[in-house]
Amino acid sequence: PNLKRYFLLIDSDGFESYHIYQYDIKTKTPTLLFGNMGFQALPAGFAKKADVMYLRSNHENKNSFSVYRLDIPSRKLTRVTMGKASWDNAVVDENETHLLLSQNKGNNENHLSIMDLKTEKIELLFAESGTNFQPSFFDHDSSIFYLNSNQDRERMGCAFVNLDDERPTLHWIRTDDHKD
């Protein structure tokens, strides 16, 4: 079977109340997958088997985004992050091993944490005053992820982190020795 699927974010009421739709390319029809009026839902990635989507939503508390695991065929939604923390960005690896979570702290600063999805333990990876850490995606083996950051620099750049390193370190991706 062809597992290629298309998903859309549609602002349902003009107030950035994004809902997630699955789009049927043959019939040109979007079908609501997840969303509640007045609340947001944003994708955070897919499991390798393609029937599982991770998403962020504030449907339980308008002031706080939590991460959920959605079984697409059954529409079963399971909350992944607990507590009062609000997550501004999230990225899952396709093996459902790790979940990257970022929190906006204000003043051009956010912190990056990682959650072990088996133990549900959350560990802070990066937190520096005035520094942004925005996760982008995981490599296929789930031990390397890519992010954008302005750590020790004047502007944002792309880097990767190898989780097998002794301690988390940004490895900058550069096109030459002076610029990214």
Outline the fold blueprint.
Layout: E1 6-11, E2 18-24, E3 29-34, E4 41-46, E5 52-57, E6 66-71, E7 76-79, E8 89-92, E9 98-104, E10 110-116, E11 122-126, E12 133-138, E13 144-149, E14 157-162, E15 171-172
Antiparallel strand pairs: 1-2, 2-3, 4-5, 5-6, 6-7, 8-9, 9-10, 10-11, 12-13, 13-14, 14-15
Q: C-alpha Rg, in Å?
A: 17 Å
Q: Got a strand count? A: 15
Distance between the termini: 41 Å
Please summarize the sheet with the most strands: 4 strands, antiparallel
Coarse shape? globular
Please describe what this structure looks like:
The chain has 180 residues and is mostly beta strands. Helix content is 0%, strand content 47%. A hairpin with a 5-residue loop joins strand 8 and strand 9. It is globular, with a radius of gyration of 17 Å. It starts with 5 loop residues before the first strand and ends in an 8-residue tail after the last strand.
